[in-house]
Amino acid sequence: MSRSVLVTGGNRGIGLAIARELAAAGDAVAVTYRSGEPPEGLFGVRCDVTSSEDVDAAFAKVEAEQGPVQVVVANAGITKDTLLAIMSEESFTSVLDTNLTGAFRVAKRSVKGMMRARKGRIILVSSVVGLLGSAGQANYAASKAGMVGFARSLARELGSRNITVNVVSPGFVETDMTAVLSEDQHKAIKGVIPLGRVAQPEEIAKTVRFLASDDAAYITGAVIPVDGGLGMGH
């Protein structure tokens, strides 16, 4: 049966791959986007996840279009990389506000409807950097690590209502963000990945599809790495 799904930051990269994968599975999928245009074939809602008002309005539009949200994927995120010694407070707090507090806003808005229905799926898109660390990304790493504690706390709160909360932790993925790296940087990255390559967005999307499916009904509070072995042991 088709479910109502919302993917934040779903107009490009990993988010778009997730949205298309879930749509291919038969779900009614809406995506939020902050800039640009909505992807063809998906219901798009402009939304800045740093605004509770925007998040509330986006959910209201999605609910009117395709019913109460049953699966939410918190994917929207930004980077502002720089070394700590020269990182501004704004660079730190803005990344946390989008990546971590944005996930809080989206999860909070979705959870009341899920609790009433006594079922739901919340999936947060974190990063291998959240547990592995990365020089020059203290803000990003902190935001992505915070998702783990947030998700596991929600898993304990919501398990009795048949709502699962899980984290997907991608490694390096072939997206616009990694396309700007030089050939030497790509070579260095691949050199530390046991599988020797970066991921395709679709590989992250298929993991999200599994966590959103009935096959994953007994999985909650999990952190699923999709990183080619880069972060194993963390």
From TrEMBL:
Residue stretches in coiled coil: none
Catalytic residue positions: 140 (proton acceptor)
Residue ranges of domain Ketoreductase in the record: 3-176
Gene Ontology molecular function terms on file: 3-oxoacyl-[acyl-carrier-protein] reductase (NADPH) activity; NAD binding
This protein's record includes keyword Lipid metabolism: yes
Annotated catalysed reactions: a (3R)-hydroxyacyl-[ACP] + NADP(+) = a 3-oxoacyl-[ACP] + NADPH + H(+)
GO biological process: fatty acid elongation
Pathway note: Lipid metabolism; fatty acid biosynthesis
Functional note: Catalyzes the NADPH-dependent reduction of beta-ketoacyl-ACP substrates to beta-hydroxyacyl-ACP products, the first reductive step in the elongation cycle of fatty acid biosynthesis.
Protein name, UniProt field: 3-oxoacyl-[acyl-carrier-protein] reductase
Biological source species: Actinomadura macrotermitis
Gene: fabG1
